[in-house]
Amino acid sequence: MWRSHLARSLQQHLSQPEAKFLHLATVGHDQRPRNRTVVFRGFLENGDRFSTPLTDCLKIVTDIRSQKAMQIAENPWAEASWYFTKTRSQFRISGKLLLIDHDCQDLELQTARLETWQALSDPARIQFSWAHPREPRVHFPKTEPPAADAPLASFCLVLLEPCEVDRLELRGTPQNRWIYWRDDQGNWLEKEVNP
Ligand SMILES: Cc1cc2nc3c(=O)[nH]c(=O)nc-3n(C[C@H](O)[C@H](O)[C@H](O)COP(=O)(O)O)c2cc1C
Asked: Under CATH, to which class is 2-193 assigned?
């Protein structure tokens, strides 16, 4: 399954923090694509046991005031693109995004949001106290990092629940490519295709 290949790539890049940067494309209000770099924060643990099951979800964090938050509310479809230099593998992961904000009433999701906040570093947490993104530049006063036990209201956990994954391995001539998709029961299927 694609997850074991992704795990292998991550394992081989443990000494390279930048290997956790992936590109996340959403759809804008005007139907144009919007793409940006984000940090992979791990997979959601036990999501398949939630009252509304969530499987294989990638965790990302973002600010509720960011443009992507608004885009997700209008259209949750997204695609992530991720390239690993050592394994020479590209993963294109498409699926729906679920934004878990301050107001989310689901206890399991709210717990996941809290745990993700707690796992952030102080420099990552402090960004959520900054002035409104994309507004005209203002002076940022020096502030203490926010408390680790209570997420700021601006903090959101974003889950990407994949429904299709396209894996390309550049090694070999010709290269190797696989498509993975989920059937109606949620089981992953795969086929090897031409690169
Ligand atoms: C290396 C790198 C990592 C980033 N990680 C994140 C992240 O984890 N979450 C996030 O919201 N933005 C992250 N950003 C900033 C985004 O790329 C983007 O500028 C910001 O989220 C605003 O995007 P939006 O206006 O489309 O919402 C990162 C940028 C870089 C260059």
From this structure: mainly beta
